[in-house]
Amino acid sequence: MAFDIAVKRVYEAPAKADGQRVLVDRIWPRGIAKKDAALALWLKDIAPSDELRKWFGHEPERWAEFQKRYRAELDANREAVAQLQGLLREGKVTLVYGAHDEMHNNAVALAEYLREA
């Protein structure tokens, strides 16, 4: 079963086409009110560990290694992954994140992981 997954910065306006919006960061994004984020869920537990997040630092040269380490964390975090997969079975889910880098962030890595699962 192919999941309908999108990835979007939390600072972009919510849209009906987003489906259920799930924040996948451990830390709440600066400058966004909870009501403006229009979230179905804030799934902190699926975010990378603080240690991995700090090590990565959104440095593109660390991207491949970050993905490898984050996948290992996701493999060990079956409960949070299953929760997200449950939402995906209901319809489209947009993974929302706060990072500036739109190509190298945990939401992009998570979407890829879920598509391959």
From TrEMBL:
<dbReference type="Pfam" id="PF22752">
    <property type="entry name" value="DUF488-N3i"/>
</dbReference>
<dbReference type="InterPro" id="IPR052552">
    <property type="entry name" value="YeaO-like"/>
</dbReference>
<protein>
    <submittedName>
        <fullName>DUF488 domain-containing protein</fullName>
    </submittedName>
</protein>
